[in-house]
Amino acid sequence: MKEILERFEEIAADPGAYAVRWKTDTGRPVVGTFCSYAPEEIIYAAGALPFRMIGSGAEGGSDAYLQSYCCSVVKNTLDDALSGSLDFLDGVVFPHTCDSVQRLSDIFRLNLTGFFHTDVIMPANLGTKSAEAYTVSVLERMVRDLEKKVGTRVAKDDLSGAARVFNRIRRGLKRISRAAAENRIHIRSRNLHTISKAVMSMDPGEAAELLEQLCTFIQEEPVQDSGRLIRIGLTGSVCTAPSVYNTIEQAGGFVVFDDFCTMDRYFDFTVDESAEPLTGIARRYLEKAVCPCKHAGLYSRGERISRRAGELDAMGVIFLLLKFCDPHAFDYPYIRDMLEKRGIKSMVFELDDEQSVHAQFKTRCGAFMEMLQDMDRQQPDV
Amino acid sequence: MSTPEEKKIKTDKRLREIMTEYYIEAKTPKEQTGKKIAWITSGGPVEPLHAMDVIPVYPENYGAMCGAAKMSTELCEKAEEMGYSTDLCSYARGDIACAEVNGGPIGGLPEPDMLICCNNICGTVLKWYEVLARYFGAPLFVLDTPVCHTGYEKEADTYVRHQIRDYVAFLENVCGKPFDYDRMTEVGALSVKAQKLWKKVLDTTMNKPAPMTCFDAFFHLAMIVTLRGTQTAVDYYEQLLAEMNDRIRKGISKVEPERYRLIWDNLPVWYKMRWFSDKFASHGAGFVADTYTSGWCGTLPHLDENDFLGSMAESYTRIFLNTGIDHMADNIVRMVEKYDAHGVVFHSNRSCKPYSFGQYDIQRIVRERTSKPCLMVEADMCDQRKFSESQVETRIDAFIEML
Question: Please, what is the average pLDDT of chain B?
Fold first, then answer.
């Protein structure tokens, strides 16, 4: 298990270096993606490596393109591209999500001309009768577009094969994450963050293989005493400051789920392998755990987070909201109230960058854990 | 030189009367009017509502009223107490708080029977209307208009056309009566007529000196937003156009002498309209056009007045905010040429990310293609806490020197 984790850690520490090696070894292109609505299956079926752009946090000159009131994920990704650290990319795929990403896509298209650019305008309203047909037609356009830009021919079998590989990844991540929440594998939330970060830029075949190997270490019984730890759920867009996991654990917390775009929302729901490949892929986007940029009823996110908290016996939920991330900020008050009604306490923390986390988050998180511990002690023994 | 009385636009009075009547009707108990109320986004398809005799109410228009009355900041603070981040759109924050406390100049908007949200202007409205739908328990219709970064695709057209049919079915269901297609044809024709008139009004500023500025246009915009599709709007803009042409004949302008002609980008700073207007006018600079008010006639080329409902998909999807920033830059370059402008002022609006992000690129493109100076001022359309008068003033003075 140690070797597998080390492999993931090595890749997560520098996903770009991995992608460059992959490109040299295979002679195939690498395509950058932004967010979990980027159809990775299609990129992989076209013979390219989907590479998730998250932003390293290094300066690159994005201030000349984006105002100060733009979120760090968008700015950091642009910084990476401007600084040249994404020069190995052959193309980028931008699915439509929020207003900031919409404009980031334009800024990439106009200024970063070293690689090809593809917009994938997924529906924002997932509940209409026409959403599925529209999504399929958008995916068909993407296939045609990539065929032209990558210079390959995408056959139906290629799509089915890619869908199967990504299903293996999703199932693997889901099993490991569940086992970690149930304390049946020696993996903590910080490891999960590393694993998913690596997986999103790795050769999907290798990623699926490693995850399946990791699943063999899942035990039937608890692997350690976690009785006194406070069970916590996390929700937000993308975690740009991995140190939060350590901070939570050091304060006595035990993260049982996280709803980030790089975690739960990335691996939720599999493609129906018996359906036409593009229909299967389209349906997954309409059914998977929803991003707040999308409309899927009025309470779907709140219901899901409350249900996850209930199933996994979480005492509290931490909203880790990226500063200037509007869709999550709009959802916060109602989900907070929904959790409160179900007896689940929550706290909100606005993440700006890694530095802000160290001091402020530690203090806030410590106080929140103490409050939950007090509540736990006051609970009558049943 | 014209006297202050001559400079005043007389049709202003008529607008105030119409808007007063409009809000009085909207706030009259529904049992008396027998009409349903729909809250709708500013870029939303209002014509089918008029065809169904539904009163459309615009939280964004009310947001502007709150902003101009300097009542928004307090409402925003109330929303922040409720848990909404201070970085969210100040229209949305103000409106969410308004629903709770019946705030603003007319004590809040009448409760909606339905909510109509079109995301052609931003993704914010989607989240905002979800909040409203949870709060009021009113049915929500979302018209999802895919972004046209580089063009209008066939699949987007098919998708939005389907939704237009869903919209009609939604209205039939909520109103409990069949959709009146004949009435829709009349409303569609009136809408096109009003948009054409609005375009003519805005084009009167091609004259030197311009008979009005964009600060006037921000005010007269209320009608094309809320009442397009009605005879009232057509009559009103005919009156306004006649007055503008009369001013041109008499050589009356707002800024005298008009030394510099400028273009404004983005929403106005509602609580500082007079300040901006006076500040620029003191240097002999007037805003002869803007990207915002022209948005309500910008898709005329995609509208078919003989098949309004059929052309709604394209015209509502292709509004300028739903296109790529290169298209938005082209629009400003065209404006600079058309209105013979000396420079462009960009309002970097903290409340409106899709309008503001990309402005640096747009500014570069405009400079390269027109060689005109550009100024970026950071503010917020309604939240006064995000405006630094002294900083903006210094930047304006430096900009004027460049002209």
Answer: 96
Q: Which residue, among B267, B292, B67, has the nearest Cα to B198 in the 3D structure?
A: B292
**Buried b vs exposed e over B357-377: b needs ≥16 C-beta within 10 Å?**
bbbbbbbbbbeeebebbbbbb
Q: What is the pLDDT of residues B274-284, one digit of tens each?
A: 999 999 999 99
Residues B156-173, mean pLDDT to the nearest whole number:
97
In angstroms, the CA B211 to CA B206 distance is 9
B28's CB contacts (< 8 A; 6+ apart) are: none
| pLDDT value of residue A143 | 98
Q: Please give the pLDDT value at position A359.
A: 82
The beta-carbon neighbor of B163 closest among A130, A321, A324 is A130
Helices A156-181 and A189-199 cross at an angle (nearest 10°) of: 170
- Paired tokens of B121: 């202007």
Please tell me whether residue B45 adopts helix, strand or coil conformation. Answer: coil
Look up residue A123 and give its DSSP letter. Answer: -
pLDDT tens per residue, range B24-71: 999 999 889 999 999 999 999 999 999 999 999 999 999 999 999 999
- Check: CB of residue A151 under 8 Å from CB of residue A179: no
pLDDT in tens, B83-120: 999 999 999 999 999 999 999 999 999 999 999 999 99
Distance CA B356, CA A99 (A): 10
Q: In degrees, to the nearest 5, what angle opens at C-alpha A111 toward C-alphas A107 and A116?
A: 90
Q: What six digits make up the tokens of A266?
A: 């990335």
DSSP assigned state of A226: -
Mean pLDDT over B301-330 rounds to 95
Q: Give pLDDT < 50 ranges for chain A.
A: 382
Residues of A in contact with B142 (CB under 8 A): 124-125, 128, 295
Considering CB atoms only, which of B162, B350, B353 is closest to A100?
A: B353
- Which residues of chain A form beta strands (DSSP E)? 30-33, 49-52, 91-95, 116-120, 230-236, 253-258, 316-322, 345-351
Residue B1 confidence (pLDDT) above 90: no
Distance from CA of B239 to the nearest CA of A (A): 38
CB-based contact (8 Å) between A102 and chain B?
Answer: yes
d(CA B231, CA A107): 42
Query: Residue B137 corresponds to which tokens in the numbers above?
Result: 């328990």
A133 vs B contacts (CB less than 8 Å): 158-159
Which one of A62, A65, A69, A321 makes the best mutation probe of the B interface by having the most chain B beta carbons within 10 Å?
Answer: A69
Task: Please tell me if residue A292 touches chain B, with a CB cutoff of 8 Å.
Answer: yes
- Mean pLDDT (whole number) for B202-228: 96
Comparing CA positions, the residue from A163, A14, A36 lying closest to residue A88 is A14
Confidence band, pLDDT 50/70/90 cuts, at residue B160: very high
Which pTM value belongs to this model? 0.97
CA distance B123 to chain A (A): 6
> What distance in Å separates the CA atoms of residue A315 and residue A304, rounded to the nearest whole number?
16
pLDDT in tens, B336-356: 999 999 999 999 999 999 999
pLDDT confidence of residue A382: 47
- Which tokens hold the place of B367? 């400079």
Q: What angle do CA A154, A150, A287 make, to 5 degrees?
A: 55
Contact residues on chain A for B82, CB-CB shorter than 8 A: 333
Q: CA dist B129 to A335, B117, B306, Å?
A: 16, 7, 32
In this complex, is the C-beta atom of A64 within 8 Å of any C-beta atom belonging to chain B?
yes
Q: Pseudo-torsion of CA A263, A269, A271, A274, nearest 10°?
A: 150
